[in-house]
Design a protein that fits this description.
Order of helices and strands: HEEE
Strand content: 35-45%
Number of strands: 3
Shape: elongated
Strand order of the largest sheet: 1-3-2
Oligomer: single chain
Helix content: 10-25%
Largest sheet: 3 strands, mixed
Low-confidence stretches: none
């Protein structure tokens, strides 16, 4: 079973597909602050993984804001 815990969902999906696993994604509501979205990029991360029957994986994910640095460093 591939370990995809704490990876961005896009990377986790690539790893699972390369290993021949099917997957299902469930997004968990996060208590992460929702204010000040300027210069932020949303990214989905795997926070829980569970092996299911038939070579399938259940991935629980949350959204996280990634702060982006502007051209002028602000």
């Amino acid at each position: 079973m591939p370990d995809v815990l704490a990876l961005p969902l896009s990377e986790a999906v690539k790893m699972l597909q390369a290993a021949g696993w099917d997957y299902q994604v469930v997004r968990i509501s996060s208590a992460y602050r929702h204010d000040n979205t300027d210069n932020c990029r949303m990214e989905e991360y795997v926070v829980r993984q569970q092996e299911l029957a038939d070579h399938r994986m259940l991935l629980s994910t949350i959204m996280k804001r990634r702060k982006e640095v502007l051209e002028h460093g602000l």
